[in-house]
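Thread: "does anyone have the structure for this chain?"

Original post by V.I.:
We have the sequence but no experimental structure in hand. Need at least a predicted one for the grant figures.
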Amino acid sequence: MRSLLKSLKSGKVLISDGAWGTFLHEKGLKSGECPELWNISNRNAVLEIAKSYVAAGSDMILTNSFGGSPVKLNHYGLEDRAYELNKAAAEISREAAGNSCLVLGSIGPTGKVLMMEEVSESDMYDGFYLQAQALKAGGADAICVETMSAIDEASLAVRAAKKATNLEIICTFTFDKTKAGEYRTMMGVSPAEMVNTVKEAGADVIGTNCGNGFVNMIDIVKEIRNVDAYTPVLVHANAGIPVLVDGVSVFPDTPEFMASHIKELIDCGANIIGGCCGTTPAHIRAMVTEINKISQ
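Reply from O.Q.:
Generated one for you, tokens below.
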């Protein structure tokens, strides 16, 4: 079994992949359509995305399973196909990755709030458990619980994934900058509050993704490092904050701009760096080139 933590022991900063949803929409995914169903109905299109990041030099790639929990798939009437869709997602990324890079099984939030009793704790846990099982069966090397905003849901996902697979677990939250200049999730969680809770749940790697470009991610990583100097930190940043141009959302940060902030991210404590919304293989190639320069 490939190990993310062993790969990090060399001391080299690893490069992850970039956006998936952005590319799926470019390839024809319609608004309101289930992205995970494409693992069956448009397998080649999903495989092309995965291969593009491997070719760009990623050390690890995600799976097209972000919304693959049965709780989330229920919106499309696909909850009974959760295992099939997640396993297929991992198989696609595994095929693209071969032996050259790691596969991270993506688990995103359910869209339900436990405190509002929109879903039971047991149903949420069981859904994450099944999803993680399927991702491992499809060839995932680690599980990435990502884009979380609530401590209770993130902790359930991490515990379920660890119990189901015994794989290494990454957990990332999405933070927004408040008017007071603080970083909080939409549920009010700070980077410092996130750290110990998800580690206690079983996370091996912690971090942040989405919602911010590299500039803000630097501040978030610093906050994480203020309370934890040792746990590996992953950063998946957007290509900046999208702006509307002729009615279309455009992400402004170029590959060169993102690459220019790599060293500062590393200096403040990031161990794995990649992209989220709006990032492309060109962004990843620029990051790889910059990392290689720094490593020389």
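V.I.: this helps a lot. The first strand starts at residue 14 and ends at 15.
O.Q.: and The radius of gyration is 18 Å.
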